[in-house]
Amino acid sequence: MNDADITNLATSFSDDTRSGFELPELYLSDEWMDDDLVSAVSGMNHSYGYQTSDDASAFFSGSSSSFSHHESPSTNASLPAATVTASSENQIKQQKKKVRERVAFKTRSEVEVLDDGFKWRKYGKKMVKNSPNPRNYYKCSVDGCPVKKRIERDRDDSSFVITTYEGSHNHSSSMA
DNA sequence: CGTCTTTGACCCGCGC
DNA sequence: GCGCGGGTCAAAGACG
C-alpha cells in the first residue's frame, strides 16, 4: 500500500460516516506494536468528527475498492503525520524488516466483526498476554484470497475494537 | 446438506 | 534445549 491508498482509504472512511457507522480512528501500515498503536491513537490530535453507532453493516461497503493494496515496502516515510508520530524511530527498523502489508484500525464499536463487504471465516481465537480480551482471527472465505484479518478489543477501552487487515484481496468483493 | 464457529492441539520463532 | 507467546489447523458441532 502506498500513502495515496492510505489517504484514499481514510477519505473513504470519512465519507462512510453517513452510512451510520463509526469511523476508524487510526490506520497504520506494516509492522506495529501494541504500544505503538496505543500511543499513536493517543497522539492523534485530529479527528474525523464521526459519531458512534450500533449498526456495523455497510461499514466498508462503498469503500471496498480502497482495500486493494499493493506491495510498496518503502513508502512509510510518506505516511501522514499521525502515523509517523506513531513510531518515528521504529519506522527505521520497519523499513528494514520485511513485512506484509498491514493496516490497523481502531474503531469504537459494540461489535467486533465489521461487515466490510467481504466474507470472513473465523479460524482461531487466542487470549493475548497484555489484554484480558481474546483475539480473533479471520480469513477471507473467497477461494484463493490470502487476506487475513485480526480483531481484538482495546485492552484499556473495551469499547474500542482494533482491526488489523493483512494482505490484499484478489477479488473486488465476495458479495455484490 | 453445506457452510461457518468453536476449541484444543499443534507448530514455529524467539529469548533465556 | 526448553518454555512461552502468538498464529494456524482441523474435528466436531451448530446453524441456516
TrEMBL record:
One of its GO terms (cellular component) is nucleus. One of its GO terms (molecular function) is DNA-binding transcription factor activity. It holds the Pfam family WRKY. SMART domains: WRKY. Its main location: nucleus. It is found in: Nucleus. It comes from the Eukaryota. Residues 109-174 form the WRKY domain. InterPro entries: WRKY_dom (IPR003657), WRKY_dom_sf (IPR036576), WRKY_plant (IPR044810). This is WRKY domain-containing protein.
